[in-house]
Amino acid sequence: MLFSKSFIPILKNNPSEAVIKSHQLMLRVGMIKQSSAGIYSWLPLGFKIMKKIEQIVREEQNRIGVQEILMPTIQSSEIWKESGRYEDYGEEMLRIKDRQSREMLYGPTNEELITDIFRSSIKSYKSLPQLLYHIQWKFRDELRPRFGIMRCREFFMKDAYSFDLSDDDAKFSYNKFFLSYLRTFKRLKLSAIPMAADTGPIGGNLSHEFIILAETGESKIYTDKRIFEVNSEKTELNKKSLINLREKYEKYYAVTDEKFNKNDFETNVPEEFRLSTKGIEVGHIFYFGDKYSKPMNASVDYKGKKEFVKMGSYGVGVSRLVGAIIEAKYDDKNEIMNWPISISPYECAIIPLINKNDNSNLEKALNIYKYLNEMNIDTIIDDTEENFSSKIKKFNLIGIPFQIKIGKKSEGNLYEFSEIGEETKNLSVEDIVKIIINKKKIN
Amino acid sequence: MLFSKSFIPILKNNPSEAVIKSHQLMLRVGMIKQSSAGIYSWLPLGFKIMKKIEQIVREEQNRIGVQEILMPTIQSSEIWKESGRYEDYGEEMLRIKDRQSREMLYGPTNEELITDIFRSSIKSYKSLPQLLYHIQWKFRDELRPRFGIMRCREFFMKDAYSFDLSDDDAKFSYNKFFLSYLRTFKRLKLSAIPMAADTGPIGGNLSHEFIILAETGESKIYTDKRIFEVNSEKTELNKKSLINLREKYEKYYAVTDEKFNKNDFETNVPEEFRLSTKGIEVGHIFYFGDKYSKPMNASVDYKGKKEFVKMGSYGVGVSRLVGAIIEAKYDDKNEIMNWPISISPYECAIIPLINKNDNSNLEKALNIYKYLNEMNIDTIIDDTEENFSSKIKKFNLIGIPFQIKIGKKSEGNLYEFSEIGEETKNLSVEDIVKIIINKKKIN
Predict the structure, then answer these.
(1) Could you report the average pLDDT of every consecutive run of 10 residues in chain B (443 residues)?
(2) By the number of CB atoms within 10 A of the CB, which of B202, B258, B267, B438 ranks highest?
(3) What is the pLDDT of residues A91-110, one digit of tens each?
(4) If you average pLDDT over residues A129-152, what whole number do you get?
(5) A285 has which bridge partners?
(6) Contacting residues of B for A117, CB less than 8 Å apart
(7) Is residue B170 within 8 Å of B310, Cβ to Cβ?
(8) Alpha-carbon distance B372 to A208, whole Å?
């Protein structure tokens, strides 16, 4: 991509309306544009990142055998009346009347709709378990939308649902998602910790929030620091191995605010390991048995008996993750972002110093650009006449993990190359390609 | 995928509520499920097909240099008041009041929103042209939703927008999309003809609908049959070549109902070439100059002068295409669907005859299944105990283009193999793989 042809509207300064760093950065480098309160458009840079995150989330769902479907954004109020949540949900639900005055709503979550799909499709216990997910826009009419896409109204979310015959099977499904989420966040280079959490309007009695530490987080958390060392790498997708993983985590105290008990915390966590801080929720899983299946009559035939299926639900905030990763990785003191290469909008940026009436650096740059693209390295080149130091500053903000600078220090066939924010080295194009390809492989 | 684990709820008979074949087939093989009037959930089979179509549409947009973004579904009424369309649009617009009583709406189209994004981002003519697209859910509150996803309320659409300095440049952009659409529909194995069309509520004076012939179509069309022979293969992405392509099409009379003039038709088309029939609109492109840029003040600085940008918009109905392809390809007399392999939910189906107490065919089938997957052939295997002929009937409806039957006629290492609906041959697995891989390559 040529920067001059791209749609990346950069702001000179931090926008005054943004108070947290993800919101500042996303507006500043033109990743998003607000269209109305709590509602955003995703411009090419932000869009590419979100799509790559979506794809990682998708792959990790498929890997544990969840099947992808797609439910609509607009739902009928009927099914919410069946479950009893239509009145309960409150003003965060965007209620709509269509031209025939039918009561509709913009789905804030999909337990009712998926239960309706299940009950009309599956009749026998032999078809269980069923694990289904979709990745779709949702709407919660926040009273005070803020922090950009972190607490917005229209947001992009992966939500999955499990259907099982017994409590025991259902917990196996729950634990599959538990592992899947650890894998997902690890691939995004986030250290996300599962914490016992309240179930809120979803219901049930077993729930974990997956939380990454961040000063700007809205969740208060209390944990034993040793939980950061628990490793899920060798866990396999069977009941025993997954129970073992859950137990490894549950050895350590880790709860959100609503579950906090000072006495428990101090009894269970030696003082040197106590950590009370803030975090950002990036995933949330729930087990709620027959909370929806019973009122909505979603049952299977099991040896001549009608059994209400046992359900869980599992959410990852896909659009929110874009902001969460910025909160975790953006060095706002030095104004340097560094995207993990697997989700970066481009893999390498070429930044030539271009003087009026002297195109030699631009020509060099275009040659390298062509070569990198042939090597399947997705590259952007700044072909504008902006001055060299502002270009570098701009690309430090954009956060593409590798930079090739073509300025006065380039010698012959060697170019100034660096990982973003690191020392530059003079290297040949061939060596540069090797380094980038190697980084892609291990990520 | 094992059929027994899949979420493919098959109906025994055609559902009585469906009157056209795409609606019948999609409900019958569990591609979709209606959630309320004109609103559908996409189950795994339908979802996979729609995603593959989406990806082809995306690739052909990227190929002509359009950049992908994503606008939200919910828009503020403010921008529609600026353009003057808020009152005009009528009851098909789903109007919403949020908890603060602000007037919002579910976007039926995005000319206003993209113009708002453009005007706040681009200031100089040097950044032109800008071509942007997104693929997003839209809502039109049809009075009588019908024909399944062909005339529904919530639908998935690719819409693109172009911004240029001059009329001449803008027509170049228009013609790029003209070519891109021909390429897109060709990849989907559809013979879609561009027809001069009315501009309706989008506005402007130049417009083409891309229409495929189908008895169940809602568009009445009048054309010269020779237009089906026009070829776009050698067209290049430059002004001259594109104008040449447009001229090749415009030699032949081809209009939709609203543009029809009996006298013109009969004067311009020799009787033997006259065709008046019905079709399905799968794409629509518009050129409307400064219709939106002027009232919304979207201009660039051109040599010290303020110029309102010249705009066009370009839509492809992604969800509708699923139905349109069924209308074009489904043989409802023989109950055989045949998906083009590039968008088929699976590439091969293995159908073993399974008797109670005899697993030998299933074991053979599982071995072939494993081998095909290793060869990157996406395969589904019917491991259920349903009887052999119903299985075959079911897979004829599902429409996966290749079938391997493992019944009484299989001999040694040779299996009954066929393209769907064609004669079966006894072939080795290696030969089967060759045929499928070859078919994938040329598609």
Answers:
(1) 95 92 97 97 98 98 98 98 94 96 97 98 93 98 94 98 97 98 97 89 88 88 95 95 97 93 95 95 96 97 95 98 96 96 98 90 95 97 94 97 90 91 94 96 85
(2) B202
(3) 999 999 999 999 999 999 99
(4) 96
(5) A208, A314
(6) 33, 35, 41, 43
(7) yes
(8) 39
Question: CATH 3.40.50.800 region(s) of chain B?
Answer: 338-441
pLDDT of A216:
83
Reduced to 3 DSSP states, what percent helix, strand and coil does chain A have, rounded to the nearest 5? 40, 30, 35
Asked if pLDDT for residue A410 goes beyond 90, the answer is no
What integer pLDDT is reported at residue B79 of this predicted model?
A: 98
Confidence of residue A356 (pLDDT cuts 50, 70, 90): confident
Residues 6+ apart with CB under 8 A from B106: A74, A96, B73, B74, B75, B93, B94, B96, B138, B139
Single out the residue of B235, B132, B365, B3 nearest to residue A33, CA to CA: B132
Which residue intervals of chain B bear CATH 3.30.930.10?
Answer: 21-329
Q: Which residue of B has its CA nearest to A66?
A: B6
**Letter string b/e over residues B209-228, b meaning 16 or more CB atoms within 10 A of that residue's CB:** bbbbbbebbebebbbbeebe
- List B residues 3-62 in contact with A (Cβ-Cβ < 8 A): 4-7, 9, 30, 33, 35-37, 39-44, 47-48, 50
In sequence order, which residues have a C-beta less than 8 Å from that of residue A362 and are 6 or more positions away? Answer: A352, A354, A383
- Of B256, B249, B252, B258, the residue nearest B276 (C-alpha): B256
Residue A215's pLDDT is: 84
Query: Nearest C-alpha of chain A: how many angstroms from B131?
Result: 9
Which pLDDT does position A204 carry in this prediction? 82
Question: How much is the pLDDT for B317?
Answer: 97
**A32-46, A189-203, A372-386, B111-125: segment of lowest average pLDDT:** A189-203
Residues within 8 A of B (CB atoms), A 86-115 only: 91-92, 94, 96, 98-99, 102, 104, 106, 113
pLDDT band for position A412 (cuts 50, 70, 90) = confident
Q: Which residues contact B156 (CB under 8 A, 6 or more apart)?
A: B50, B54, B135, B136, B137, B138, B317, B318, B319
Fold for domain A339-441?
A: Rossmann fold (3.40.50)
- Give the distance, in angstroms, between the CA of residue B204 and the centroid of all CA atoms in the same chain: 24
Q: Residue A357 pLDDT > 90, yes or no?
A: no
* CB proximity A294 to B under 8 Å: no
C-alpha–C-alpha distance, residues A389 and A394, integer Å:
9
The answer on pLDDT for A411 being more than 80 is no
For residue B348, the number of C-alpha atoms closer than 13 Å in the C-beta half-sphere is: 28
Confidence band for A358, pLDDT divided at 50, 70 and 90: confident
Nearest by Cα to A23 from A320, A347, A283 = A320
Cβ neighbors of B285 (< 8 A, separation 6 or more) are B174, B177, B178, B181, B207, B208, B210, B312, B313, B314, B315
| CATH class given for the domain over B338-441 | alpha beta
Kindly give, in sequence order, each residue whose CB lies less than 8 Å from that of residue A150, ignoring residues fewer than 6 positions away. Answer: A20, A22, A23, A218, A280, A320, A323, A324, A327
In the structure encoding, which two tokens stand for residue B98, read together? 């949020």
Q: For CATH 3.40.50.800, list the domain ranges present in chain A.
A: 339-441
Contact in structure between A325 and A319 (CB atoms under 8 Å): no
Question: Among the CATH numbers 3.30.2000.10, 3.40.50.790, 3.40.30.10, 3.30.930.10, which is that of B21-329?
Answer: 3.30.930.10
CB–CB contact B47 A68 (8 Å): yes
**B117 at interface of A, judged by CB pairs closer than 8 A:** yes
User: Is the separation of the CB atoms in A8 and A45 below 8 Å?
Assistant: yes
In chain B, count H helices and then E strands.
12, 21
Q: Measured between alpha carbons, how far is A390 from B324 in angstroms, rounded to an integer?
A: 51
CA distance to partner chain A, nearest, from residue B170 (Å):
16
